[in-house]
Amino acid sequence: MDPLKLKFKEKATAVAANVKKLNKDFGEIIVDDVRINQVIGGMRDIKSMLWETSELDAIEGIRFRGYNIPDLHRLLPKAKGGSEPLPEGLFWLMLTGEIPSQDEVNWLCDEWERRSELPKQVIKTIESLSLDTHPMTQFSIGILSMQSDSVFANKYREGLNKADYWDVTYEDAMNVCARIPKLAAYIYRRTYHNGNHIAPDNTLDWAGNFAHQLGYEGEDFKELMRLYLTIHADHEGGNASAHATHLVGSTLSDAYLSLSGGMNALAGPLHGLANQEVVGWITEMTDTLGTTTPSKDQIANYVKETLAAGKVVPGYGHAVLRRPDPRFIAQKEFAEKNIKNAPMVQIVWDVFEVVPPILESLGKVKNPWPNVDAHSGALLIHYGLTEYNFYTVLFGVSRTLGVLASLCWSRALGLPLERPKSVSSAWLMNFIEEKNKQ
Ligand code: AMX
Fold first, then answer.
1. N or C terminus of the chain with fewer C-beta within 10 Å?
2. What is the pTM of this model?
3. Pair 160, 173: CB distance under 8 Å
């Protein structure tokens, strides 16, 4: 058994025993109440699912197995000469709860390289799609096209003991994580660079090799990818891509089917597509104003026009967070350290000053602060990755790590089919009528 699988097995076996006992001894204890405005309003805040890999605090932001983003920056192993965390390290952390050593991360990087070949049918499937198919649609279809390779699905068909679900899910998760940068890079080069593909450089780490296969050789861009693919990986279980992956997975659909479901959720403009929307919105603003250096007053007027047209300001607001997203701050710090005089970055910083008071003044926006998507596009533009329809795929490559580490946990804990109760509006009205009679 490989060292990560062995460690995960040890940890998960202990947690599974605790969870079983918790359910048996305290299963009837109430952890939350549900209000009608939560039933109607997208189930915000209802504590109703188990998710081991990360937890989100409205003020502090995300913690992965207890470690916040500055902790990850400090503690996770880095590439030689680099200062950004390696995403391989975060995957190890999410599965084991332990910060890995440099050797452990090197092992994982080699292991993913070993598993990274794309099955032939993937290329055939992607090539059958028209070039104007959105990169996220190509990505989701590409993931599905690998499904016939699922170790879980094939073993399940042969007859698989429940106790072994986690083991084959781990194999699927490792294979998908290994292949996903290659799939994303293939889609990028086919869509924007005439199918001029670049062979992997297996002397590089997972994120560095991804940057190389996209066609970006600068060390700063590789560092950006290491940071980017770390901070987008997981945001507890209730966000749409994580929850969709979990829901599909709860039917015992394998990692490929589950991840594709999650990626379809990520492709929505209120979720992961917001990173492309932000750049689209800024570009429209600078085109309309005829300047790449708009004043703060000009930005404020443009924000007000956006709102008056009944649109959201992309990159701002969050269903859970109530402060500037630490993932936004991490990207801002990266830009402060590595980038000088980038007009789009400056606009992002000016928007950060201008937007919150305007959103606050509406009196209904619960979080006027920037989220992760407000900054990422400006960094990519600076390094020359200007094709912003592709940005959500980058998010998806990273999110794959979190949702598949979680799928391993769900299988190891034996979590059941997810099936919440829905009610009709007539049921709610009747419920109130009955309550009023009491
Ligand atoms: N611009 C304009 N209005 C906004 C807004 C924004 N950025 N954020 C929230 N609002 C509005 C909502 O549309 C809602 O209006 P309504 O009552 O007229 O329908 C009202 O404020 C209350 O919404 P909320 O409770 O503060 O937010 P929510 O939990 O319903 O939604 C989110 C959260 C992210 C969908 C929302 O803030 C939004 O649409 N933001 C812009 C899109 C975006 O950046 N999405 C990316 C989020 C991060 C991610 O998942 N990658």
1. C
2. 0.97
3. no
